[in-house]
Predict the 3D structure of the following.
Amino acid sequence: MTSVKICGITNIHDARSAIECGADALGFIFYPKSKRHISPVKAREMIRKLPCEVIRVGVFVNQEIEEVKEIAAFCGLSLIQLHGDESVQYCGQFPASSLIKAVRPRTGKDMVGCKDYPVAIILIDAYAPGRYGGTERVSDWSLAARIKKTRPLILAGGLRADNIREAIEVVRPHAVDINSGVEISPGKKDPRKMREIIEIVRKAGPTVEQGIFRREAGLS
């Protein structure tokens, strides 16, 4: 079954609603320029109130390596998602099993380096100049499907209730990452939309592996 990550969590109400709706993982964005940015202190307070089995993913964009490591330890993150222009060498400073690397390919040439990242999972997002996620743009599913043949894959980018079934059928991702598609406004989730889209994902059929987030977090 395709795993589901609800990203851009900014408050405890949305976190609990996402869990109740069946989310496998929650994403907390530590990128200061994001509309869904959350401080490490607030994130830790929230995480401490959540069930320990919930997968906590921290999202970072081009931040200092030591800063990322400190926030990950401080908040008790399960996984680290690097969503910027981080290099292969940058990624190598972390345990590969703890990393998700986001890429935003526009053409097949942009995918050449994906195989070199020493990470557990590749995430495909839509490209938008100067923006790192949360753009509501739909990613290139054909490119995502090609990457999925060689790497564990999370599909992101403009996923909504009206397109996610087709996205899963085309790409067959191990997981989907949903953000703006379940929002009332940036950083504020809609419980009805979360429940609806997760129900669609659950009915869309099995993928190659189950529980990708729990496996990589060492909980499966």
